[in-house]
Amino acid sequence: EVQLVQSGAEVKKPGESLKISCKGSGYSFTSYWIGWVRQMPGKGLEWMGIIYPGDSDTRYSPSFQGQVTISADKSISTAYLQWSSLKASDTAMYYCARGGYCSSTSCYPPPGLIDYWGQGTLVTVSS
Amino acid sequence: DIQMTQSPSSLSASVGDRVTITCRASQGISNSLAWYQQKPGKAPKLLLYAASRLESGVPSRFSGSGSGTDYTLTISSLQPEDFATYYCQQYYSTLRDTFGQGTKLEIK
Asked: How far apart are CA B2 and CA A126, in angstroms?
């Protein structure tokens, strides 16, 4: 069974750093893209960026480039989303999500098609 | 960047009704479109991909159609468990504005 299990809720102050995690199981972690999606309170879904754990190829949405860092440790099948200095506007639910599959020769479906989601990590930033 | 415009933003309907939600892309996306359902406090769930392909385990009352820039999600006969928020997503270009703004389907 494919599972993406995210780390627990966080409460932080503005200016603090944070790294949240997403552990994949039940599939070949290095063969599928993993993305991060933000959902601010009462709002819609926003695509933040995506990483291919097999070679750490990482792409960011222009809206989030420079604001967060996406990484992965394939030895423990875990992807990360990191902030160096949080703002109150970072308060949101963050979901990790499994994207497309890549073999040694090709990728299908495309990276951005999500078939499994983590349960979400609520990040609250408040002074 | 590809913009996704979803309509309506909210919709009231009754059990048994047929409902349609529309998603328009700012440029052609070659059927690279998915639909997700999200219930309060839960992660989204994939319903359809490639515009019209039903994800495994999703009831057949859900269907999708469209091509080019215009796509629709249809629920043929609403069930109580279908009241949720629905999002379209283009995965033709994995960049910003990938998702539509959502359609909240409420009980009339």
From this structure: 33
How far apart are the CA of A10 and the nearest CA of chain B, in angstroms?
A: 17
pLDDT exceeds 90 at position B81: yes
Cβ-contact A47, B96 below 8 angstroms: yes
Beta strand ranges found along A16-112 (DSSP E): 18-25, 32-39, 45-52, 57-60, 69-73, 78-83, 92-101
Is any Cβ of chain B less than 8 angstroms from the Cβ of A9?
no
Tell me the average pLDDT across A47-71.
94
Residues of A in contact with B34 (CB under 8 A): 113-114
Question: Which positions ≥6 away from A70 have C-beta within 8 Å?
Answer: A36, A48, A49, A50, A51, A58, A60, A79, A80, A81, A82
| DSSP letters spanning A92-113 | EEEEEEEEEEB-SS-B-S-TT-
Residues B74 and B19: beta-carbon distance below 8 Å: yes
What distance in Å separates the CA atoms of residue B51 and residue B85, rounded to the nearest whole number? 18
Residue A7 three-state SS: coil
Q: Which of A9-18, A53-62, A83-92 has the lowest mean pLDDT?
A: A53-62
